[in-house]
Amino acid sequence: MGFWDKETSLIEGAPYELHEFQLGDSGTFWRYADAPADVAHGGHTFVACYCTGGRVEQGGNVLKSQTVVKVDWRNPFAWQYTVAAPEDVVHYVRYKGHGLDVTAIYRGDVVDVAFRQSDRQGRRWAEIVIDPVTAAMQRAGLVTRYSRQCGVELYSDLCGVARADHKFSGTLDAVSGNTLTSATFGEQADGWWTGGDVVVNGCRRKILEHIGDDVVISPGIPGVAAGQAFNVYPGCDHLVATCHGKFNNRDDYRGQPNIPDDDPFSQWGIL
After folding, report:
1. Torsion over CA of 3, 7, 12 and 15, rounded to 10 degrees?
2. How far is CA 79 from CA 31, 75, 83, 219, in A?
3. Closest CA to 188 of 205, 166, 204
4. Which of 44, 52, 74, 97 is the most buried (most CB within 10 A)?
């Protein structure tokens, strides 16, 4: 019937699962039902996607087990990971349903999305890997490695740059496939928006390239057209010059711009 050829129906008492993803503490949700028809729950619609939830360990370790949700590789939530993961953590809740009875059985955070190819027919799917809510408490302390570039995510708490302070707004002059054109983009030097993101029609997309008045995004945005308003945010290549010049945030730079070229313990090092 669907991608997973599940022969199930939503008759009363038939089992099904609901998968809910939330971007940070925002109001952005992706809701899916592992069922052949949409399911209404809690005042929301969970769209049928024939997605498959991996086994959730029952018993004393239920909050410690990792789980996987398989979806069609074209699933809107999974597809965004072909460009870059969302900047905020994505929370996950799985519900188990029997008829009208629905119970939450698992909570966690998305840690990875991997794209797979299953057989000679080329059927493809994505595996959404989810850690339980207790996973962060089990991890050892973070170790910062020396790097010439800053490893901190732009606009995150560690970065210290507020997204709202670097928001630009404009109106689209033209749209051609995944290329958006606006004079607002051209107000900055080529590459200024590369790596940033643009929001149109409530859809956030990563900017892959910026030249003149044009930016290239991926994936495309359904229904986008000239005359529509947008918000756009600059990207960062994680170099100290960009951190200082574009965001005036050198104090929070976490890279190592002054790493010596020679090993201090080599024959060219300390004498």
Report:
1. -70
2. 15, 6, 8, 8
3. 166
4. 97
pTM over 0.85: no
Residue 265 DSSP label: T
Is the separation of the CB atoms in 109 and 91 below 8 Å?
yes
Cβ within 8 Å of residue 127, ≥6 positions away? 68, 69, 70, 113, 114, 115, 116
CA 165 to chain CA centroid, nearest Å: 22
| Secondary structure (3-state) at 93 | strand
Query: How many whole angstroms separate alpha carbon 209 and alpha carbon 203?
Result: 18
Backbone φ and ψ for 21, nearest 5 degrees, come out as: -115, 135
One-letter amino acid at 56 equals: V
- All residue ranges of the chain with pLDDT < 50 are 1-9, 11, 59-63, 137, 139-143, 269-271
CB 96 within 8 A of CB 17: yes
Tell how far CA 43 is from the center of its chain.
25
Is residue 18 a contact partner of residue 33, using CB atoms and an 8 Å limit? Answer: yes
